[in-house]
């Protein structure tokens, strides 16, 4: 272009240069340097924003994890529900068991003996009517008083409550200082109801396998759990539910897991049985009611 401009006159060359300067250039030639400049200036800001964004994500994730843990270990609100608990009596020790006395057999009242009037002999004299009026005969005397008294005493002995006899036997054994005999203990164990035997066996098993949770012990969590345990007629544990919450899901879950952990059946109660058990977690100890 320069050699063309040289051959032309000066005025024409000036006009051509003026046209070249005023000719609209493409936008690409102006925006490329500007884009490079903007990219270089925005790189530190973009890096900083990315770091801040990832830090926010980490903070939110940590906060969610802490909230989840606090919700799991925090005690749940107490449920205001009414529970009717049936207490299971403790096992009767052989040394402290009351002695049972065999029932007193019923005594039949003694038959009344009516005296027979003596028949007068043929050689006896005719009785004096005046003497007969003054002296009462044997048939008019109250001869039935003694048999009636014997009948009343026999009925009174039969109807005496067995509680008095048991207390009397226990006091005599305490005064003598001698333990109950083995046949008496065997008779007591045979008298135990199958339902009571199953309940006592389950109670002994539950108190042996319950363990205070270490997490609850560290946090000082305590409470009382009311359990309803269902046992079938074969002695196997069918289900266990929480009737009264302790306020902590950790303690409730521990009590339910211990009740359901029985692998071998208990003594058969002969029909389905529902046991109401109160498990108390307090100060690192476990009590069962």
Brief digest:
By secondary structure, the protein is an alpha+beta fold. The protein has helices at residues 2-7, 10-22, 28-73, 129-134, 145-158, 162-176, 182-191, 194-209, 214-219, 249-260; strands at 223-231, 237-244, 273-282, 285-288. Among the domains are: 2-63, no CATH class; 194-288, Fusion Protein Consisting Of Minor Coat Protein, Glycine Rich Linker, Tola, And A His Tag, Chain: A, Domain 2 (2-Layer Sandwich), CATH 3.30.1150.10.
Under CATH at level 1, the class of the domain at 194-288 stands as Alpha Beta
Instruction: Report the principal-axis shape.
Output: rod-shaped
| Beta-strand segment tally | 4
Strand content: 5-15%
Rg for CA atoms: 53 Å
Helix content: 40-55%
Main traits of this protein?
Fusion Protein Consisting Of Minor Coat Protein, Glycine Rich Linker, Tola, And A His Tag, Chain: A, Domain 2; 4-stranded antiparallel β-sheet; 11% strand
Task: Describe this structure as you would to a colleague.
It contains ten helices and four strands, in the order H-H-H-H-H-H-H-H-H-E-E-H-E-E. Strand 3 and strand 4 form a beta hairpin. The chain has a four-stranded antiparallel sheet with strand order 2-1-3-4. The protein has 289 residues and is an alpha+beta fold. The longest helix is centred in the first third of the chain and has 46 residues. Among the domains are: 62 residues, no CATH class; 95 residues, 2-Layer Sandwich (Fusion Protein Consisting Of Minor Coat Protein, Glycine Rich Linker, Tola, And A His Tag, Chain: A, Domain 2). About 27% of the residues have low confidence.
